[in-house]
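retry 2 of 3: previous attempt timed out while embedding zinc ion. Reduced batch size to 1 and resubmitted. Inputs unchanged:
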Amino acid sequence: MDEKKVREAIYCMKSFADDTVCEECDNYDGCDHTMVADNAKTAIEALEKQLAKKPEMRTAYNDFVGRLICYKGFCPSCGGVVESYRNESCHHCTQMLDWSE
Ligand SMILES: [Zn+2]
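retry 2 succeeded.
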């Protein structure tokens, strides 16, 4: 996914979530009007996970001659343990990970 597009979508969703757009809804009287904000929040959280973040406490693991085997660290979103050789994204919460320096 294009990072610029994701950032724009998040920006747009945030302004959308702050507005009341309920007036047009058929279910106006039967609703407490929190659904728009809740749904937008869910969408924003999912979009933010598409933007790669650096793992916390990235640690390099080397073999006995000093060749890099992999990096390990903690997911910046959920705190789960992640490993560079198999996790392009966090397998706990789907957060995309950036293992670069
Ligand atoms: Zn995670």
